[in-house]
Design brief:
The protein is α/β, with parallel strands linked by helices. The chain has 12 helices and 13 strands. The strands form 3 sheets. Strands 7, 8, 9, 10, 11 and 12 form a 6-stranded mixed sheet that branches. Strands 4-3-5-13-6 form a 5-stranded mixed sheet. α1 packs across α3 and α2 crosses α3.
Length: about 290
């Protein structure tokens, strides 16, 4: 473990893996690998990685103060790591996902969770791209595709079902089952997330030419639907909360989300607590699959 600790201490002192590699006559890849191994052995995130360099996490600062001290402090490392894994008031647990998952599934369930876990802190981060869990860009991610990385732990969550919805004002007394979609104003996702089913459904059914609004934001689509701009393809649970009316249509997509975290964190108490809360929040919102 000593070589890994030396890479850690040097990375803190230099502020970058590149300068650490030069100082220790190693490759950058070796420095990164040794740091990941140390974090895995301790079950702690020690450094935040950024384009400009690295910085200590709250746990990393405590470990560094011990490692930079007298050699006899090393014997305390396991005890310190155990204390920090179960400790409180340290780094927040960072959860990364898309806007509807963060805003409409997790946020409404926050109050009860935080009341029960008063020492836990969270960061809910909305992202349009997959963050790197091995690089510790987040602690937990909720993704709409199953990751293939063997270093990641995954659990399938209840499916997100989508449907076509309109407001009463847009329908203006018309029978939803009598609508011809090729004559209606449609609202859908843009290509910010790539060729996802929500974005390609309209082309698949020959309706792309009827799109009067595209957005990367589900909330924007719902707001526009409420204001009678047209018919949108959005998650059913959100549309039904807003009192929107479902429009009969060809089969609409459903997405399968997964909660994902690094294998290093599988025994870290606050990560496990948060993961379990995410699972419960999905099941309470969408029902058990």
């Amino acid at each position: 473990m000593w070589d890994n600790i030396r890479c850690f201490v040097c990375s803190v002192e230099t502020g970058s893996f590149t300068d650490t590699a030069k100082r220790l006559n190693l490759s950058v890849a070796t420095v990164s690998r040794r740091l990941q191994k140390l974090e895995s052995e301790l079950g702690l995130r020690l450094l935040n990685r950024h384009v400009s360099g690295v910085e200590l996490t709250a746990e990393g600062k405590i470990v560094y103060e011990k490692m930079a001290g007298p050699a006899d402090q090393f014997s305390e490392l396991t005890r310190i790591a155990t204390m920090l894994r179960d400790g409180v008031n340290l780094e927040p647990v960072v959860i990364s996902s898309t806007e509807p998952i963060i805003s409409d599934i997790l946020a409404p369930k926050l109050a009860a969770f935080l009341r029960t876990n008063t020492d836990l802190r969270l960061t809910l981060s909305v992202s349009t791209s997959n963050v790197s869990l091995p690089k510790r860009e987040a602690d937990i991610a909720i993704r709409l595709n199953r990751p293939q990385d063997d270093n990641l732990m995954t659990k399938r969550l209840p499916s997100l079902r989508l449907g076509l919805y309109a407001s009463r004002a847009y329908l203006n007394g018309r029978d939803p089952s009598a609508l011809a979609l090729e004559n209606e104003s449609l609202l859908g996702m843009d290509d910010s997330f790539g060729d996802i089913p929500e974005a390609t459904w309209f082309s698949k059914h020959g309706l792309a030419h009827r799109l009067v609004l595209k957005s990367s934001s589900v909330r924007t689509l719902c707001a526009a639907t409420i204001e009678a701009c047209g018919i949108s393809l959005v998650p059913r649970f959100i549309a039904e909360r807003q009192g929107l009316i479902e429009i009969p249509s060809p089969a609409t997509p459903q997405r399968t989300p997964y909660v994902v975290f690094h294998r290093d964190f599988r025994k870290v108490k606050r990560i496990v607590l948060t993961k379990n809360w995410i699972v419960e929040s999905f099941e309470e919102t969408l029902g058990k699959s």
